[in-house]
Amino acid sequence: MRTSLRRWRVRDGERGQVSLEFLGFLPILLILGLAAIQLGIAAYTVSQAGTAARAAARTASYEDPPTDPTAAGRAAISGWLASRADVSVTGGPEEATATTRVDIPSVIPGIGSFGTAERSATMPRD
């Protein structure tokens, strides 16, 4: 009987240790979570930049475009990224090239941008 009481006394001294270990590990989990979210936003921004470049180049390739190619490029992407997008269209008589630059938003407060995603697309003219 004394051995069982002795075991309980040792365990009573360790009460709350798991909670403290979790609190110590919590900042690492939060940093990893924010990094994963930031990586996903960066990949999504690169994809949207490619979509905007293709839409702008396609519109610029028409002989008589129905709308401004830069407006078409911005309209092709998500609204919260369209305000961060810079679409430019160049090209000659045989092809149209559109380049889109989009600032990658940050999930960390106080940091405005995590760089720029840039994509280009070239389409033959009609």
Automatic annotation (TrEMBL):
It comes from the Bacteria. Keywords: Membrane, Transmembrane, Transmembrane helix. The chain crosses the membrane at residues 20-44. It comes from Streptomyces pathocidini. Residues 16-58 form the TadE-like domain. Pfam families: TadE. InterPro entries: TadE-like_dom (IPR012495). This is TadE/TadG family type IV pilus assembly protein.
